């Protein structure tokens, strides 16, 4: 926990999207740091039957220029840390390159998998991230990988809780998502990126009390929080970042923030395709409200220190 306690308190952040560049000038006073997903700045190609990622030079340069002067954290989409046959080495190559050009304060990845094989053993990309079962077998797979990523860079590694839609995921001994996250962070030493919108989606879809669940979560492992808003479809609350944050998620943030001693950043997430739907004014409102929460619970050695040292 020494590493977590010594992290700088970054403040309020925004996930960088290439389509945001024109709006950043009017949002800059509300942004303390940026979260970049390296995958979004890449082309994906198939080489010798394997998927490879290469940066689009113009997109990478634009991202680094647009976020210059503020701290950076990395948030991966395509590592596929839960794939049985192994994670996506191509993602680690682009993460290495980003860190060489602009070291990040911490990096994170979804607790999910994208890569598997079909019935004939050929590589298969699922198209969307899929959740892992809450089993000892999954923990045995994930723990050394998360530990390795924590020591690969001079920056902590976080895993993000994920949405799941299928009921009755396999589990051992009645272990649920919270117990699984507690076991994983304890055994691997990694931190937690607590996506409160994802957590809210699961609570709505599976009808559990999010506060009772969060009261069992190791909140001392929470380094970053995501907030976002999305849509419903056929009664399901969907994990798409296409709207402003719903009130129940703000309520969860107010509950968690004072109880997470190592919380170092709150990020509002919006996908590029939804920028025109949310609008610059909508993004400003989300960042300003997140700032109110941050100032209330974390700003004593938060935003001012981050700006002073950046």
Structure write-up:
- α4 links the parallel β5 (72-76) and β6 (107-110).
- The protein is of the alpha/beta class.
- The chain has helices spanning 2-5, 24-27, 57-66, 89-101, 136-152, 177-188, 196-206, 210-214, 247-256, 275-297, 303-309, and strands at 11-15, 33-36, 42-47, 50-55, 72-76, 107-110, 113-117, 123-130, 157-160, 191-195, 222-227, 232-233, 236-237, 265-268.
- α5 packs across α6.
- It has an 8-stranded parallel barrel, surrounded by 4 helices.
- Mean pLDDT is 88; it is low at 302-310.
- The chain has a single domain, classed as Alpha-Beta Barrel (TIM Barrel), CATH 3.20.20.150.
- It contains 11 helices and 14 strands.
Give the DSSP E fraction (strand runs of 2 or more residues): 15-25%
* Overall pLDDT level: 88
> Can you summarize the main beta sheet?
8 strands, parallel, barrel
CATH topology, anyone?
Answer: TIM Barrel
Shape: globular
| Cross-sheet strand order for the largest sheet | 1-2-5-6-9-10-11-14
Tally of helical segments: 11
Helix % is 25-40%
Distance between the termini: 24 Å
Output the structural class.
alpha/beta
Number of domains: 1
CATH superfamily: Divalent-metal-dependent TIM barrel enzymes
CATH architecture: Alpha-Beta Barrel
Order of helices and strands: HEHEEEHEHEEEHEHEHHEEEHEHH
The CATH class, by name, is Alpha Beta
The count of strands amounts to: 14
Q: Which regions have little confidence, pLDDT < 50, spanning 5+ residues?
A: 302-310
The value of Rg in angstroms is 18 Å
């Amino acid at each position: 926990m020494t590493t977590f306690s010594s992290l700088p308190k970054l403040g309020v952040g925004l996930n960088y999207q290439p389509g945001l560049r024109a709006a950043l000038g009017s949002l800059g006073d509300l942004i303390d740091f940026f979260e970049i997903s390296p995958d979004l700045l890449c082309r994906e190609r198939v080489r010798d039957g394997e998927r490879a990622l290469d940066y689009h030079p113009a997109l990478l340069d634009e991202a680094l220029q647009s976020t210059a002067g503020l701290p950076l954290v990395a948030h991966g989409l395509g590592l596929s840390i839960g794939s049985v046959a192994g994670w996506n080495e191509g993602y680690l190559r682009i993460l290495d390159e980003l860190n060489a050009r602009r070291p990040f304060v911490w990096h994170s990845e979804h607790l999910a998998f994208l890569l598997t094989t079909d019935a004939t053993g050929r590589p298969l990309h699922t198209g969307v991230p899929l959740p892992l079962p809450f089993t000892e077998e999954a923990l045995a797979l994930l723990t050394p990988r998360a530990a390795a990523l924590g020591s690969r860079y001079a920056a902590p590694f976080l895993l993000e809780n994920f949405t799941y839609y299928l009921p009755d995921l396999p589990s051992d001994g009645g272990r649920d998502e919270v117990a699984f996250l507690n076991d994983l962070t304890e055994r691997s030493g990694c931190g937690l990126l607590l996506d409160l919108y994802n957590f809210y989606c699961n609570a709505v879809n599976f009808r559990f009390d999010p506060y009772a669940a969060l009261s069992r979560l190791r909140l001392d492992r929470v380094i970053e929080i995501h907030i976002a808003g999305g849509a419903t479809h056929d009664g399901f609350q969907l994990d798409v970042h296409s709207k402003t944050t719903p009130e129940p998620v703000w309520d969860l943030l107010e509950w968690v923030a004072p109880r997470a001693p190592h919380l170092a950043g709150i990020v509002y997430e919006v996908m590029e395709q939804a920028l025109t739907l949310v609008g610059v004014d909508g993004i400003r409102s989300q960042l300003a409200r997140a700032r109110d929460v941050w100032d209330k619970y974390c700003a004593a050695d938060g935003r001012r220190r981050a700006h002073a040292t950046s």
